[in-house]
């Protein structure tokens, strides 16, 4: 059974616009077309869309996803390249998680700060420097 782009959009949560964009960017080489040229998605295409979505939402640029899809279409001769791409992406995601955890610590501290100030009825007994967001030496932003 073939699925239309609107059916796939409903199933995946991706918009039809996003699916068309992915197709134009070369991320959907596996999608067949019907007699009149409309995209005809198969059940197995959902697995491809799931990995594309995972890579995109975890920060992989479209250009790199396209390279990965090209390697997949080439078959077994690109297994090593695909493994290396996933290892590199895992490092990127791991680093991003660590960065977000640092920000979460700062946010948690500010929540504690304001709750304490509210409980005390003032922030005057808490160091005023706590009101300012400062950068650690290792922060790049």
Walk me through the structure.
- This is MerR family transcriptional regulator.
- Residues 1-71 form the HTH merR-type domain.
- It comes from Paenibacillus paeoniae.
- The protein has a two-stranded antiparallel sheet with strand order 1-2.
- Helices cover 60% and strands 3% of the residues.
- It is mostly helical and 141 residues long.
- Helix 4 packs antiparallel against helix 5.
- It folds into 2 domains: 1-74, Multidrug-efflux Transporter Regulator, Chain: A, Domain 2 (Orthogonal Bundle), CATH 1.10.1660.10; 93-141.
Give the topology.
Layout: H1 5-12, H2 16-24, E1 32-33, E2 39-40, H3 45-57, H4 62-74, H5 79-120
Supply the key terms.
141 residues; mainly alpha; Multidrug-efflux Transporter Regulator, Chain: A, Domain 2; 2 domains; 5 helices; 60% helix; 3% strand
Helix segment tally: 5
Number of domains: 2
Averaged pLDDT, please?
90
Outline type = elongated
Distance separating the two termini: 50 Å
**Share of helix among residues?**
55-70%
- Flag low-confidence runs: none
CATH architecture of the largest domain: Orthogonal Bundle
CATH class of the largest domain: Mainly Alpha
Biggest sheet: strand arrangement? 1-2
Instruction: Tell me the strand percentage band.
Output: under 5%
Rounded Rg = 23 Å
CATH third-tier fold name of the largest domain: Multidrug-efflux Transporter Regulator, Chain: A, Domain 2
Number of strands: 2
Biggest sheet descriptor: 2 strands, antiparallel
Structural class: mainly alpha
């Amino acid at each position: 059974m073939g699925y239309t782009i609107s059916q796939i959009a409903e199933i995946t949560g991706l918009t039809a616009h996003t699916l068309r964009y992915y197709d134009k960017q070369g991320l959907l080489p596996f999608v067949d077309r019907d007699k009149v040229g409309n995209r005809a998605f198969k059940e197995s295409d959902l697995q491809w869309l799931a990995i594309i979505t995972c890579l995109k939402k975890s920060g992989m640029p479209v250009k790199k996803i396209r390279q990965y899809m090209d390697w997949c279409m080439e078959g077994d001769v690109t297994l090593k390249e695909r493994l290396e791409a996933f290892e590199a992406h895992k490092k990127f995601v791991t680093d991003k998680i660590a960065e977000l955890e640092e920000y979460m610590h700062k946010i948690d501290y500010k929540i504690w700060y304001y709750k304490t100030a509210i409980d005390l009825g003032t922030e005057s007994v808490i160091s005023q420097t706590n009101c300012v967001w400062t950068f650690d030496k290792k922060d790049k932003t």
